[in-house]
Design brief:
136 residues, alpha+beta, four-stranded antiparallel β-sheet, 4 helices, 4 strands, globular
């Protein structure tokens, strides 16, 4: 079965403090069958500008909550992906890169294939933008 569309989110954390508070929300979506976590990568930029790339296992106690994530395709995100975002990361901050399959789209993807339909483009508008527009 082909994969559904995959999104890669880059989530920033000031002060190099990865918050495990987002993990329950991710797990809830996995449990509902909405997404499947393909890979997770952490990028940290020190006060001196040095960049460190970490996997879940590298986080230690500060990232213990992330251990609960079942990663389906470890290594799908790599150092090249981390390098792309490292330049834009401010010093003394970090980012979580998470790739997930939109499993809720599987039936639609199969329907596209049966109809020989080819998606031409895809646009996702971030929730913060949608909320800002709708509340103005």
């Amino acid at each position: 079965m082909p994969l559904g569309p995959v999104d890669v989110y880059i989530i920033g954390f000031p002060g190099n403090q990865f918050s495990g508070e987002i993990v329950p929300a991710i797990l809830e979506q996995v449990d509902k069958g909405v997404i499947r976590v393909l890979d997770v990568l952490f990028v940290m930029k020190g006060a001196d500008g040095d960049v460190t790339v970490l996997t879940i296992e590298d986080l230690g106690p500060t990232g213990a909550a992330f251990i609960e994530l079942d990663v389906a395709s470890p290594g799908a995100l790599n150092h090249e992906d981390a390098d792309e975002i490292a330049d834009d990361l401010p010093d003394n901050s970090s980012a979580l890169m998470i790739a997930f399959e939109n499993t809720w789209m599987e039936d639609l993807v199969m329907a596209f294939a049966r109809a020989e339909a080819v998606p031409i483009d895809h646009l996702r508008i971030p929730a913060s933008v949608v909320n800002a527009v709708l509340t103005d």
